[in-house]
Amino acid sequence: MIRYKIIYTMKLFTIGIIAMAAKPPHAGHVKLLELACSECDVVYAFVSKITRARPNEIAISWDQVEDTWINDIVPSLPNNFRFVPTSEAPVRKAYELIESSDMHWKIALYGRPEDMNSRFKKMPSNVTIRDVNLGPFSGTEVRKAIANDDYEKFKSLMAPQVDAEALWNRITQ
User: Fold this and answer.
1) What would the 3-class secondary structure string for the chain be?
2) What predicted TM-score, i.e. pTM, was given to this entire model?
3) Which of 57, 62, 73, 99 has the fewest CB atoms found within 10 Å of its own CB?
4) Is 97:14 a contact under the CB 8 Å cutoff?
5) pLDDT band for position 30 (50/70/90)?
């Protein structure tokens, strides 16, 4: 008689939370979402609909990136992904979800170390700050490529599922 060993796998976390501006969304954002989906039963991405405008950088609006999110990124992610565009601050939405969650759930907050430690303080014991650095991708570099009219650099910072040319055209027109 052959005996089969059944291996039960469980995700590390019940809920994953990502709060971001993501204007424009780039390969680092997508890698972060994919990682969270692989580690969590359900992942909530709270994405700001407010125009991203920093001094000396190009301003990018939700209207310019919405199509990329809806048609390129969201369909490429697993079924445990929940996309929540918001006109409220994404960090506030993350806190609200944590506050309304069951204390027995394991919750992970995902992001870059420099962002996480300043935005999320005094978390309940069931919350893990998941400091993640997924390489050289940054919104600043993407916006710099746009400002320098450097489409090739811009394209190199995009995830494979993103129609870089369409996004470029929406941002630069």
Assistant:
1) CCCCCCCCCCCCEEEEEEEECCCCCCHHHHHHHHHHHHHEEEEEEEEECCCECCCCCCCECHHHHHHHHHHHHHHHCCCCEEEEEECCCHHHHHHHHHHHCCCCCCEEEEECHHHHHHHCCCCCCCEEEEECCCCCCCHHHHHHHHHCCCHHHHHHCCCCCCCHHHHHHHHHC
2) 0.88
3) 99
4) no
5) very high
